[in-house]
Write a structure and sequence with these properties.
Shape: elongated
CATH class of the largest domain: Alpha Beta
Helix content: 25-40%
Number of domains: 2
Number of strands: 12
Number of helices: 9
Strand content: 25-35%
CATH superfamily of the largest domain: P-loop containing nucleotide triphosphate hydrolases
């Protein structure tokens, strides 16, 4: 898996799939038993890796020091990194829209504000890569919209990986989805292509529709739905609906049949993810 600058990649999968464990290894919090995690070519398993300064990390729940005020917490976090430019804290408070709560205790903030404070802290050293674990969990609809807009803005010149259980969040904010099952990436696809594979509905007469459709090479499966003489209806599974529709029309015409209906029924993003979780998608 590679995530370039300018892209938001989503991690989807059931509880226990290994998403958080994987993200902790990417951040260097855990050492992998195999494989490599690199940020800009730097191996994150090395405790002294320069890649650690290139990464911003927001764990699930946005943990912070509840007894500190927001401005104090950000100063504390900036001191941990060292070398944070003067004025950077103010810039991040403005960008994450938390200036109005800078004097409040972190422990008294709502979930939405805590998420924004956590993101501001992760961004203080201006990292080119961000890893966010369940950043949208517990946010109300308005908070989700605000947070998603902020992530879109930040992704312009950064690589971002976020895990989520919410398909709606993934569809709204991510460019690419990676579905994890049992510790492995089961499927990966761009969000704007996730509905490419689907079904074609065919209604025709004058031929054995089932036999005719099985001669079309771009079709993976055929299911005859109904037969109401003289019409037959079938659904065809295909990975390339547009090409398959042309091939079906040609095959039916060659066989001497007449088509009444030929339509594409696209799989939605939720169906693609469901199939990926069942191991039927790649």
């Amino acid at each position: 898996m590679e995530i370039p600058r300018g892209q938001i990649a989503g991690f989807l999968g059931p509880n226990g799939a290994g998403k958080t464990t994987c993200m902790r290894m990417l951040c260097g919090v855990l050492s992998p038993t195999g494989g490599r995690a690199r940020i800009d070519g730097h191996d994150m398993a090395d405790p002294q890796s320069p890649g650690r300064r290139l990464l911003g990390w927001l764990p699930e729940g946005a943990p912070a020091r509840d007894e500190l005020r927001v401005a104090e917490y950000l100063k504390y976090h900036a001191a941990l990194w060292g070398g944070v430019p003067a004025g950077r804290i103010g810039q991040m408070m403005e960008r994450c829209d938390i200036g109005d709560v800078q004097g409040r205790l972190v422990g008294q903030l709502s979930r939405g504000y805590r998420q924004r404070v956590g993101l501001a802290a992760a961004m203080l050293h201006d990292p080119p890569a961000l890893i966010l674990d369940e950043p949208g969990t517990g946010l109300d609809p308005m908070q989700q919209q605000t947070f998603q807009a902020l992530l879109k803005d930040l992704s312009a010149d950064r690589a971002i990986l976020l895990s989520t259980h919410q398909l709606s969040e993934a569809a709204a904010v991510c460019d690419v989805l990676h579905v994890m099952v049992g510790g492995r990436i089961q499927a990966a696809r761009r969000v704007d292509h996730a509905g490419d594979s689907g079904q074609i509905i065919v209604e025709a007469r004058g031929i054995d529709l089932d036999a005719c459709l099985k001669t079309v090479g771009s079709i993976q499966g055929v299911h005859v739905e109904s037969v109401t003489p003289p019409w037959q209806q079938a659904k065809c599974e295909t990975a390339d609906p547009e090409d398959a529709m042309m091939a079906i029309a040609e095959a039916v015409a060659t066989a001497g049949g007449v088509i009444r209906r030929l339509a594409m029924e696209e799989h939605g993003l939720d169906q693609w993810v469901h199939q990926a979780l069942e191991g039927r998608q790649s």
